[in-house]
Design goal:
The protein has eleven helices and 13 strands. It is of the alpha+beta class. The chain has two domains: about 150 residues, Gcn5-related N-acetyltransferase (GNAT) (Aminopeptidase, 3-Layer(aba) Sandwich); about 130 residues, Gcn5-related N-acetyltransferase (GNAT) (Aminopeptidase), CATH 3.40.630. Strands 1, 2, 3, 4, 5, 6, 7, 8, 9, 10, 11, 12 and 13 form a 13-stranded mixed beta sheet that branches. A hairpin with a 2-residue loop joins strand 9 and strand 10. The two termini are about 35 Å apart. The model has no long low-confidence stretch (mean pLDDT about 90).
């Protein structure tokens, strides 16, 4: 039978994913975004086979469909029944082909930019539908290693940053006051002239975050906060979501010390991976690479109608 994509309510999405304890398909996370998320289900007759979502936005008055802010992937989740490897691969391609056809129709009068989780590597149906398929990268550290093994894989520069911070009297602490964390991060955004929706920041820090899904570390010197790292986590993985430092009270090792503490804490609470959650900006990529994680690709698919795509090439050549 032919697969069909239908919009569904969020409750059906949550019910389908309920056995999976992953951050970006959890109700606690998705509820941050109110009514701007479109939930979709892929049906084979009446049977729900897979789900995904996207953010309904505009760019210069043009419909723009993408992943929600601070959300790296599109919430794609499926329950493929076959245990045969080739059959699983074929069923997955069927589902991805259905999604590619769905966004192909949307792209006629809009901009589509959708990221898939690293586990979804088959993007051929999007290539066949003339999407631009772009590899992006993050770094992941396996926490099955000992802390000594993780440290040994770091560059000498990162290890020296941490040693110097400790030698100079900096301390890092698990911080339960997200106001302190948010203030440091906002200073970083302002310093770099980055436009960030303050409403979502507030919802992440004061609606979503609790001790069972997130943690933050702050580096101090003489009781003054210098740098902060904020992570969210599920039953397997910690994601580095936000970080920053105070440029009026800085130390070259303050951020590294906070980040190393976050990695150690992730291992301590029994997680399997630490994910730097995207590393595409060149100086940030170099900094994250210094912590010795494995380079991990994930894919973003982009498409717009021909005229709009030509215009976008002048502004976002790397994307279109």
């Amino acid at each position: 039978m032919a697969l069909e994509i239908k919009t569904i309510d969020r409750r059906l999405y949550y019910d389908f994913c309920c056995d999976e304890k992953r951050v970006f398909i959890s109700s606690a996370w998705i509820d941050i975004y109110d009514k701007k998320i479109v939930f979709c289900g892929i049906f084979d007759d009446a049977q729900l086979m897979a789900v995904f979502y996207y953010y309904n936005d505009t760019f210069s008055g043009i419909p723009y469909y993408h992943c929600p802010p601070f959300t790296p992937y599109n919430g794609y989740f499926t329950k493929i029944g076959s245990k045969n490897f080739a059959s699983q691969s074929g069923e997955n391609k069927r589902l991805i082909s259905c999604i590619a056809n769905y966004f192909d129709k949307l792209s006629f009068k809009s901009i589509v930019r959708i990221a898939f989780p690293p586990e979804q590597v088959d993007m051929q149906p999007f290539v066949w539908n003339k999407f631009k398929v772009i590899p992006n990268y993050t770094y992941r550290i396996s926490l099955a290693q000992s802390t000594e093994e993780i440290s040994a894989k770091m560059t000498a520069e990162r290890r020296n940053d941490i040693k110097k911070a400790t030698k100079d009297g900096l301390i890092t602490e698990l911080c339960n006051d997200n106001t302190v964390v948010k203030t440091i991060i906002e200073k970083t955004f302002n310093r770099k002239s980055l436009q960030v929706d303050g409403e979502f920041l507030n919802k992440i820090f004061f609606q979503y975050a609790n001790s069972e899904n997130s943690f933050a570390f702050v580096s101090y010197q003489n009781n003054k906060p210098m740098a902060s790292v904020f992570c969210i986590y599920d039953n397997t993985t910690a994601y580095y979501l936000l970080g920053g430092y105070d440029s009026t009270n800085k130390h070259p090792g303050a951020g590294a010390l906070a980040l190393w503490s976050a990695i150690e804490h992730s291992k301590k609470i029994g997680l399997q991976k630490f994910d730097f959650e995207g590393s595409m900006i060149k100086p940030i990529e170099k900094y994250f690479r210094g912590f010795g994680g494995d380079l991990t690709p994930y894919f973003i698919v982009n498409k717009a109608n021909f005229v709009l795509e030509i215009l976008l090439k002048f502004f976002k050549r790397e994307l279109f």
